[in-house]
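Researcher: Quick test of sequence recovery. C-alpha cells follow.
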C-alpha cells in the first residue's frame, strides 16, 4: 500500500537518487563508527621498548621502524629495534678516566622482530638522538644488513654513538624530558 502511494507521488528517477543518497549517508555513518572504535597506532619510532622473547628477553631497545602491515617477506607485523645487550656499570668519583671509560662501554644489538615480542614503555627517545641513530642505520642498505661484516660495522658505529650519549647524559630525574634516555641505559631489574 505504502509502496503504491510512494510510487505515485515521487517519480522513479527521483527515488533512485534518493536511494543513492541514503546509501552514501549510511556508508559515512559506518565509516565514522569504525574510526571511533579503531585503535590508534602507538608503536611509533623512538618509543623505548622491552624485549619479551628470545636471547635478548628483558633487554631495553629503541624502536626504529614499525610495519604493522604484513608483506610477502614478513607474514606478521614487524619492527626494527636497536637495543643494549650489555649495560654500562656503576661509576664512582674515585675511579680514574681509563677505568670510567672501560666501565661505561656497552654492547648493542640490531634486530628485526615480531611486534608481539616487544612491550612498549611510557618513555620516548628525544628526536635528535632518534634521528642520529636512524641516519646511521639508513646509511647501510637493507640488503647489506644481511652481510655479517656490514652488520658488525653498524653495531660498532652505534655502540660508539650510544656510549658517548651515555657519558654526556644530564643528571636529573626521569620526569625531565632530556633525562628520559637514562631509562634506556639502566638495567631492568626483574
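Model:
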Amino acid at each position: 500500500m505504502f509502496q503504491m502511494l510512494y510510487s505515485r507521488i515521487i517519480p522513479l528517477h527521483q527515488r533512485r537518487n534518493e536511494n543513492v543518497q541514503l546509501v552514501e549517508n549510511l556508508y559515512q555513518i559506518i565509516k565514522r563508527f569504525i574510526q571511533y572504535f579503531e585503535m590508534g597506532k602507538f608503536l611509533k619510532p623512538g618509543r623505548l621498548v622491552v624485549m619479551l622473547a628470545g636471547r635478548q628477553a628483558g633487554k631495553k631497545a629503541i624502536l626504529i621502524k614499525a610495519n604493522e602491515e604484513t608483506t610477502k617477506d614478513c607474514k606478521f607485523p614487524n619492527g626494527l629495534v636497536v637495543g643494549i645487550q650489555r649495560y654500562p656499570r656503576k661509576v664512582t668519583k674515585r675511579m680514574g678516566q681509563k677505568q670510567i671509560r672501560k666501565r661505561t662501554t656497552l654492547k648493542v644489538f640490531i634486530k628485526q622482530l615480531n611486534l608481539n615480542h616487544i612491550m612498549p614503555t611510557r618513555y620516548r627517545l628525544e628526536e635528535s638522538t632518534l634521528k642520529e641513530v636512524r641516519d646511521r642505520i639508513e646509511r647501510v642498505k637493507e640488503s647489506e644488513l644481511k652481510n655479517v661484516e656490514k652488520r658488525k660495522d653498524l653495531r660498532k658505529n652505534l655502540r660508539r654513538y650510544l656510549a658517548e650519549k651515555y657519558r654526556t647524559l644530564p643528571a636529573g630525574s626521569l620526569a625531565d624530558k632530556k633525562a628520559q634516555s637514562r631509562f634506556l641505559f639502566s638495567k631492568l631489574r626483574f
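The CA atoms of residues 54 and 117 lie 9 Å apart.
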